[in-house]
Q: What sequence folds into this?
């Protein structure tokens, strides 16, 4: 029988399939079902910076602030923060007490402000690692790229000062010098980079003239972008790589492992097909390994990466000239 175990960010996983942060991972019952179906680890639904601020505004309105004592204002703000955090840390504790797979907490953040103090509470609650889901849309036409990128380093520095559990950073591909930027991020001492996070994409309803969400779930075809960059970066930066977006079956997971990923995250396929899909993906991986005489993951991980490929230039090709010219 093939050994599917792998080490991601220093965590021992029974297999490289991780259920990513989503509405599917926000309850103990779901987390237990995820474990029972064979996942190697789970990333809890993200705690949002904006969520904490919303809780504060909901409890303490601007009008109230004008009439209150400073001590009362501080008390109510602290209560709102604590209430939101307690719900999250309770979930971490319950998951650790009732399951045996690694529990990775997640924070969706945009700044290195006061929220970073919550990282120590997440660690104390028992989380095995923390995934920072960071994305600052480079939409400010007056902002220099270097100033936007500095925010990422500030967040990592602030969080690392609070905790010593492994930290991964889930990032987008919206960087002009993505390879160099990811390399420099890996020098900060983070343990992993997740390629790539997926965002709300707006669409326009031409009948109501309102914005609406588009492409809520990923498709198998979306794997190609992360596959390219996993292959280019694998074993060339100083932290582990985890693939995200587009893994819908065992074939997708195998491709990412061949490219050099230590693990792969799934969400959309579980929304569409249920938690039973986890077992199918894991079984598919095991069957493929046995058919190809691989006894463990490291026997083939990165075999198709840029560093090991017999045709690494293919990962740099971005034009379709050959295809449209009718050349085989």
A:
């Amino acid at each position: 029988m093939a050994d599917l175990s792998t080490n991601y960010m220093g965590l021992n996983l029974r297999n490289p399939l991780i259920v990513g942060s989503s509405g599917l991972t926000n309850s103990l019952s779901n987390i237990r079902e995820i474990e029972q179906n064979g996942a190697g680890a789970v990333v809890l639904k993200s705690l949002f910076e904006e969520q904490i601020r919303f809780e504060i505004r909901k409890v303490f309105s601007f009008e109230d602030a004008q009439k209150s004592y400073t001590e009362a204002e501080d008390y109510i703000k602290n209560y709102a923060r604590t209430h939101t955090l307690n719900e999250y840390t309770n979930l971490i504790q319950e998951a650790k007490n009732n399951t045996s797979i690694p529990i990775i907490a997640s924070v969706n953040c945009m700044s290195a402000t006061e929220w970073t103090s919550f990282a120590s509470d997440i660690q104390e609650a028992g989380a095995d690692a923390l995934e920072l889901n960071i994305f600052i849309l480079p939409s400010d036409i007056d902002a220099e790229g270097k100033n936007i990128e500095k925010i990422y380093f500030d967040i990592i520095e602030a969080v690392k000062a609070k905790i010593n559990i492994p930290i991964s950073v889930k990032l987008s591909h919206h960087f002009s010098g993505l390879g160099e930027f990811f390399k420099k991020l890996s020098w900060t001492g983070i343990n992993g980079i997740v390629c790539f996070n997926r965002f709300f994409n707006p669409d326009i309803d031409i009948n109501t003239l309102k914005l609406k969400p588009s492409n809520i779930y990923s498709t198998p075809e979306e794997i190609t972008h992360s596959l390219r960059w996993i292959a280019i970066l694998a074993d060339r930066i100083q932290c582990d790589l985890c693939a995200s977006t587009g893994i819908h079956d065992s074939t997708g997971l195998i491709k990412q492992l061949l490219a050099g990923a230590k693990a792969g995250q799934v969400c959309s396929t579980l929304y569409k097909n249920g938690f039973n899909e986890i077992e199918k993906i894991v079984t598919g991986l095991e069957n493929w390994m046995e058919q190809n005489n691989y006894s463990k993951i490291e026997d083939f991980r990165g075999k198709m990466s840029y560093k090991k490929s017999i045709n690494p230039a293919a990962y740099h090709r971005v034009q379709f000239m050959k295809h449209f010219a009718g050349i085989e």
Summary: Confidence is low (pLDDT under 50) at residues 62-73. The two ends are 40 Å apart (CA to CA).
